[in-house]
Amino acid sequence: MQELSFTANRFKAKQSPLTDEHPTPTDVPQKQGISCKDNILFDSEYYTLSNEYKSIPKLDEFETILDLKAVSPLVSVLTTNSRILVYNHESCSSVTHTFEIPYSPNSYNLMPLSAIISNPLNALKPDLVVIDPISGEFQFFESIKLVPSLSVLQNVVKDRITLYNAEFLTGVQLFQENSILVTTSQKRVIEVTFKDQLGNVSIKLNQVYNNRPLISSILSKTHSISEIENSSHIVSIKTYDASPIMKSIIVLESTGRVVFINHLKGSSSFNLVAQHDMELILSNVGLRFLDFEFLKNSKIGVFLTIDLKENNLVSNVFYFENSHSVPNMISNKSVPCLSLDEEIIDPKVFSFNLEKTLLVKNDKKLIIFDPNFENLASPWVEVLALNHSLIIYSAEKLPGLNDKLFLATNEGLLTFSFKESGKSGDINGFLKEHINQYLQYNKSDGPLIFDLKETSLAIATTNIRDVLSEIYDELLENKSNASGFRSFADSNLERRVFLVKNLTAYTQRNYDIQNDEVLRTKILKSCELLALAKNFLHLNTNYSLINDSDMLDHLKIGVPLTDYLQNNTKNVLTLISKYVNYILNSGTENQVIQLSSLLKELFINSIIKLDDDVKQLLGGSSLSSVFVDHFELINNVNVITRKIYNLASETTDENVLAGYNQTLIGLSCFLYYSVNEIVEYLSTRGGSALVLFDELLTKEKDKWVHVFVVMKKQRDILPLVNKYKDFAGLSALLESMREDIQTLFESEEISEIEFANMATDVEIEFDRYFEYYGYEFAEALFSYYKQNHKVNIMLQNFDKHSVHLERFLESDLSNYSFGWIHDIMNHKVGNVSNKMIEVALEYSTSLREKKFQSSLGKLATVLQMNNSSEQNSNNLMDCYNANLSITDVQECIYYCMQELGMFSNSHALDALIDSPYIRSNNFNEFRERLKEIYFKLERKGSLDILEIVDFVSLGCFQPNILTNEVPKNGGCDSTGRIVLEIYCKTLHLLKTLTNCGNISLIVGSLSMSVLLKLFLKRIFMNRDYVPLEQIVLELEKESLNISFNDHSLMLSEDEIYTLQRRSNSQIKDYEKENRVSIS
Q: By C-alpha distance, which of 329, 414, 299, 327 is closest to 366?
């Protein structure tokens, strides 16, 4: 429980150092002596708050304000730690005119009490009373001058209030025209009259009330100033006219004792007519009474109490039938809009509107409500929260100004002016009005706080969300009173952009926006649409974008552009899309160039820069969805960007190129940002738009990033690349930065020291991303090097990240086509021996690669023989030898084909795939297979053993075979010898592979005997060109005894299935061929 803070400044005259929390007037920029009237801080249909006068007398160095209060609309009294100043707010001189009374602090450091007695003849010549609270001595200054005057005479009368043992004065207030009431620490009230009925100075003292505890005062030897808060004392006195001749005085003590006193005007008679113990009536002895207001017309007393155990400020409402009867309690309810953890500081209660409305001031909060609010179904309550930096020295209602409350503050005189009460407490209505008031009157340096937590109202988040959503809609649709919807379009849109950004800041402070994606998206979209409308109107004003009848007919807006943008803001993108489409399809090249520059300016200002600001307010978690339904616009912007890129590549004019570059940077940034945002936004929603934008992003993303690489503006796009975790783009940017530095050094544009420093900076950048993203980034970076044939950089520059590098190299066997270098550098020859055979078989795209990798693997195996098992080494050697044999045969076939002139010859290809064997058996699938192998062989792609057998045995290697001309006498011409060489090489290969050990890695589940039977059957069936006896001789030479009959050359179903699977396609011709008889 927080302890009650008693802040009657008259008990705190001790000089305190200046602090940031309590600035002096010298800290506040102001124009001394010049008043600022009618400065409205807040205005509603219920009340107005204005800062009517901001001027405060200039203070000396180390001078501190102790008290400040308004005594009339024109005059205030300022008490500092060294003097009292009475000043005129409306002084027109360069320095505010003051009447100054220096004083010396008393022994208890209590500041003097002062009072102003108004002068009915001249408001700027009032009387001043200054009283020392310890001694009781006072000075009466008659008709002080608050305007420049030639007179230097000042009438001063001194006198003294007699005080008892250890008694001191605690307060002073105006009573009648020429008198004041003074309260003491021993619960006495004394009237001091300064003039008689004729207006002559005449000092008289009358005791009004005495509840002095006799014993305690006799025993007291010292002034118990620090104990006044915790002891019984007078807290408030209210006076009113009971009749034209009778004055009523009501005195409230902190213990709840209420005393009614009648006073006959003009006399010294004070009669105590009634007293009541309110604490007993409330049946609560733990209360402390703080203030009260007596509503004379309705005979109601409103008492503010606090329960120190609960820190709860309560409004206790009693009905007083007359001053003698026991009060009847009407209600007993906590003051609204105050939370239990709110500190209770100097609370005051006031009545307005002919006593129908109450205002409670607690510290920096003003609460306005109906006295009977707890009995209403939907009570009307308003709350004004003042800035925590504002110091309120006093709150006073002045005579004759019943519906005004004057707050004397360190920022001048604030005036609260009441108008009328509200009738309903609808929470949504309150919220909407409160938030709209924030939009209209909030200022960063203003005295008001509009945050909902300051109202201490229990408001459901659904209510807050609904109202915020409604206000955003009104701002977008130009229906908000705060936007000035009747003003010119440019100022209207400017104002609405400003308001929606302010409302976003307010939303972030007052609503859990992080858990409301729908509202976050709506906020960002509203900001973007308003900014687009504002900036498009600005561009049209400056460049006359829409200026001909054909364009207006195409746009079909039906109203002036200014009206359309102001009142149809949500459709602004449709308008922009039509405009871009029109220029792109109907405009000249110069118009397209101008359009690109304008779009760059429009989108950078309306989307990129604005989104950055708004997203910071929303916690950075929102996604821009404003272009979701405008794929055509985004695509057209991309087309324009490509056009400008091509123009930039062709121009040699440096000035023109600079303009193109700026445009490219802006549009590429916009496209990269907006498309990434849309894809991420739609990724959880799906739909056809996602497909379109995702395809565009996949296709164009690298080009957008490349623009920044070309322009050497990599760091400009890095934040966005990081945001979307585009590691491929990040890799391209970082590597280009490294290459740029290398280029500068090689061209001698930077010194060696500069190169070293810049290179170190880039290396640190690399390291930062490695550390932050780990292997996710490393994988993308190394993949970038692999795809862009920069593996040398990858293998040489990342020793400190070798763990990531080795993981990447081992993640895919294809990486070992260059990963073997890393193993060689790290003396891991065994890895090369074991892995290279698979790389050569599976990932060699060319004959050259396959031969090199097989040779390298064989060499590594030889070097590793002493470090591995003999069987493993022999198996690997067999595999490498077999693979090299296959490459030798493929090379032979290639050169033979080249010698026969069968490459790049469409007739030769037609003859090749239309051999008599294929043609006579209608093997159409074999035709296609031969064609695929032919093109693979032509580009020196790597062939496997089955492809070699199929190509050699099925193809026709002599175009004139179609004429069925066979050499006579069993001879062979030069072509025949070449073809025979191909056959013999293939036969020898099959024999070699048959005699090899474990070569399953090379041939898989294929049997060499199957391939041999397949090969011989086809050669036999194609024997019309190469004499069969030549083949038989070759078989004998290779010691291969094969019978040429159907039974011996027949394949099983399993063997046919193996062939089909090995060829990676279900070729039915293998089955069909097996049924062909050779007889």
A: 414
